[in-house]
């Protein structure tokens, strides 16, 4: 059984059942079924690739943004069943979404160069940020002495916004386009084109701590900050995923150089001898309770659970018939959400409009417990 939720939104309208198709046809060379793990299927998923999934910090409400220009919200019931609650739109694909810390508002970043704030109680959305090119990332920052929205764009800027004002509080020029970002106060990490990593501290006001070159050889795809329970649960480093089927674990201030390491994932044996098929790591999520446990999802249509400290794999899923593009845990860490949809890794000729995205919920409470040393 999944945990119960106690929150509800007033004034939202259900967006009903959108057309969905279930098919096992597949030309990607992946699995033959859309739900091999027999997980709970979320009702009324978006009609195009899901770019981000995020659970509310306050209750079991899930949001998902998509290339169909929309963001949707579902309530997850105690039995794992989902209730579609509401939906909002941009004029272009939505590349990222995040929650306000109070659990009543959602932020969305779009190729239409805007970020919007969606008030779930009134079901109204207003523009709160603007860039010169598509906005790739959005993160809410809740500091003791300020709160703001951080946005990263392909216009080579990171901006910080007081949502009550039309101009940004701060604009940081960076060397390249923003590809991924994460925030766990007081740390922010931004991954850019050309394998760049920029680390920021957020106390008092955001400022750059250091620039790094990715320890991975190929393009940054996703980044997720991890905490250290021995240091009062403070953020101490990040996991970086790339298009080459590899993840780097990086501490900002490693106590031992061997603390930093990389590992291979989302690879499979190819057709020839000593040949591996290598897939992109599309998303990384750290467990909110067991800080050393993390999930990775990839273009190979699989998710994997890992123990960072023991440097071991805890579980790998069966192979779905589509890539897994995004994932997240709920705030208590007993539900793992993941979504299968085409990620364009094999080009437009492999896009099948008949195969619609799906979002699944997995009861993961036992599977993510760290290995006993």
UniProtKB/TrEMBL annotation:
<dbReference type="InterPro" id="IPR036322">
    <property type="entry name" value="WD40_repeat_dom_sf"/>
</dbReference>
<feature type="repeat" description="WD">
    <location>
        <begin position="128"/>
        <end position="171"/>
    </location>
</feature>
<dbReference type="Pfam" id="PF00400">
    <property type="entry name" value="WD40"/>
</dbReference>
<dbReference type="InterPro" id="IPR019775">
    <property type="entry name" value="WD40_repeat_CS"/>
</dbReference>
<dbReference type="InterPro" id="IPR015943">
    <property type="entry name" value="WD40/YVTN_repeat-like_dom_sf"/>
</dbReference>
<feature type="repeat" description="WD">
    <location>
        <begin position="87"/>
        <end position="128"/>
    </location>
</feature>
<dbReference type="InterPro" id="IPR020472">
    <property type="entry name" value="WD40_PAC1"/>
</dbReference>
<protein>
    <recommendedName>
        <fullName>Mitotic checkpoint protein and poly(A)+ RNA export protein</fullName>
    </recommendedName>
</protein>
<keyword id="KW-0853">WD repeat</keyword>
<keyword id="KW-0677">Repeat</keyword>
<feature type="region of interest" description="Disordered">
    <location>
        <begin position="26"/>
        <end position="48"/>
    </location>
</feature>
<dbReference type="InterPro" id="IPR001680">
    <property type="entry name" value="WD40_rpt"/>
</dbReference>
